Structures are given as structure tokens and as C-alpha cells.
TrEMBL record:
This is Adenosylcobinamide-GDP ribazoletransferase. Its cofactor is Mg(2+). PANTHER family: ADENOSYLCOBINAMIDE-GDP RIBAZOLETRANSFERASE. HAMAP family: CobS (MF_00719). The keyword Magnesium applies. NCBIfam families: cobS. It comes from Paenibacillus lutrae. Belongs to the CobS family. One of its GO terms (cellular component) is plasma membrane. It is a multi-pass membrane protein.
Length: 288
């Protein structure tokens, strides 16, 4: 029978695994990467995203003090990539090389395992980085800094969908791989991650209001609703946009590969971050 202490320890191990796997932040703890620990780590992906988001927000503030928006946005993107060790960009390039080769399924999977980067991987990576940089520049250049609240939530929701990708699509490689480490029931942890991301969104949006960094919700909803309902609706829109875009992308990739792989999880994260950043940039264009 599991005691409260044992249960708490298992969840702390899951949090540690999520931090060590998804970031390059120093977490000097040795843990055993068992399937049970990795399954629990899925629930903490949005929390890791929130940590990254606040590091990015603080970095944006510091860079904005000493630099114009253009070089500040480039350096902010460098920090973003460095925090993850380019883990997800690597997955994006491998996925692009395989999926866009238009070869048979098994050949696509072989290409994705190749450590060398092909032309399609480079092209897609450059395009994604350019889109992210231009969106960050738009956000930093905006007269109102309320968009920074949504900037914090970008890595939260992209990682929340990663858990859904792990849980709801089969693993494509018969010989196993990273996705095979998450063996066992994963859907409850993916559901917990989505709920966690929703709660983090409510907290972040609410905190910005309390701190006086007023978010112009009237751009989204008009002025007829109270702030509480506007915060809730904004969180619902973030959830809906992320999961709608993620479901389309994951389904397209899985149709070609017969499932998803570790590389495609990283690709989905990068693509969803790009989608969310472009959505925030579009709101800035309309006065958010």
C-alpha cells in the first residue's frame, strides 16, 4: 500500500524528470527514468512551460532596458532556444526531413533517425525561426505590454499539447524509442496537464490584472463581460486554438508515419509555439 510520502516522492520525481528532459536548467538530482516516473512527468509539462515563460518575460524586460526591440527580440529567441538546448528544433528538422521526403513510411522513419540534417530540415527550421523572431519583435515593439502575459503562456500550452500527442497517438517505431519509455496509461496524466495549463492561464492572466498591467480584453470580447469571465474565455480560446491546431498537425504527421515519434513531439511543440506567437502578434496588430 502506497503511503502519502511515497506518493509525494513519485510526483516530485515526475517534476524533476520533466525539468531535466525539457530544459537545460541545472537540476542536480539523479533519478531513475522509469516508465512510471516518465508518465507522471507528463502532468508537469505545462508547469515547466510556465517556468520557461517567466524566464523569457524577465529576459525580455532586461533586454528592453538596454537594447532596441530588434536586437532584443533576436537575443530573446536565442535565450528561448538555449533554455531547451534546441531539443525541439532538432526534432522539427528531423521530422521535416522525413515527412517532406514523400518516401514510403519506413524510409521516412529511417531518414528521421539519420543524424545528418537535410535541405528540408534546414528550410523549415529557418522559416520557423524567422516567424518566431518576427512575432517576438512585434510583441516587444507593441506600445502596450499586455501581450507579454500571453507570451508567458505560449510554452505552457505548446507543452500541454505534447502530453496529448504522447497519450492519444500510437508510437510509430516498432523497434521502440523515446516514446516507448512512456509505456502504460498516459491519458489521465495528459488530462491533468491540460487542466494544469488551464489553471496556469487563469492565474497568469489574473495576476497581470491585479498588478495593474491591464489587459485590453475589450479587443477580444467587447466590454459587456466582467473581467473574470473575460479571463476564463481567453483561457478557453488558448486551449481551443492550441488543441485545434495541434490535432490537425499531429493527425497529418501520424497519417504519413503511422503514428508519432520523439522527433514529432518536438516538431509539434515548435509549430504550436509559432502558431501561438503569430496569434499574439495578430492581436497586437488590432491594438491588444
Amino acid at each position: 500500500m502506497r503511503t502519502l510520502g511515497t506518493e509525494l516522492k513519485s510526483w516530485l520525481l515526475g517534476l524533476t524528470a520533466a525539468l531535466q528532459f525539457l530544459t537545460r536548467l541545472p537540476v542536480p538530482v539523479q533519478i531513475e527514468w522509469t516508465p512510471a516516473v516518465l508518465r507522471r512527468s507528463l502532468a508537469f509539462y505545462p508547469l515547466v512551460g510556465a517556468l520557461l515563460g517567466y524566464v523569457l518575460l524577465g529576459s525580455a524586460w532586461l533586454l528592453g532596458i538596454v537594447l532596441p526591440e530588434l536586437p532584443a527580440s533576436v537575443l530573446l529567441l536565442c535565450i528561448w532556444i538555449g533554455l531547451t538546448g534546441a531539443l525541439h528544433l532538432d526534432g522539427l528538422m528531423d521530422t521535416a526531413d522525413g515527412v517532406l521526403s514523400h518516401r514510403p513510411r519506413e524510409r521516412m522513419l529511417e531518414i528521421m533517425k539519420d543524424s545528418r540534417v537535410g535541405a528540408m530540415g534546414v528550410i523549415v527550421c529557418v522559416l520557423v525561426i524567422l516567424l518566431k523572431w518576427s512575432a517576438l519583435y512585434t510583441i516587444l515593439h507593441s506600445s502596450g505590454k499586455a501581450a507579454c502575459a500571453l507570451l508567458v503562456l505560449v510554452p505552457v500550452w505548446s507543452r500541454a499539447f505534447m502530453t496529448a500527442a504522447v497519450a492519444f497517438w500510437p508510437y510509430a517505431r516498432r523497434e521502440g524509442g523515446m516514446g516507448g519509455f512512456f509505456s502504460g496509461g498516459k491519458k489521465p496524466f495528459a488530462a491533468a496537464a491540460a487542466a494544469f495549463a488551464f489553471g496556469i492561464s487563469l492565474a497568469v492572466l489574473g495576476i497581470f490584472q491585479l498588478l495593474g498591467r491591464q489587459i485590453p480584453y475589450d479587443v477580444l470580447w467587447g466590454t459587456s463581460l466582467g473581467i473574470v469571465w473575460q479571463v476564463i474565455l481567453t483561457a478557453v480560446v488558448l486551449l481551443s486554438l492550441t488543441f485545434a491546431a495541434g490535432w490537425v498537425l499531429a493527425s497529418m504527421i501520424a497519417r504519413k508515419l503511422g503514428g508519432l515519434t520523439g522527433d514529432t513531439y518536438g516538431a509539434l511543440n515548435e509549430l504550436l509555439e509559432t502558431v501561438l506567437l503569430l496569434a499574439i502578434a495578430a492581436l497586437v496588430q488590432f491594438g491588444f
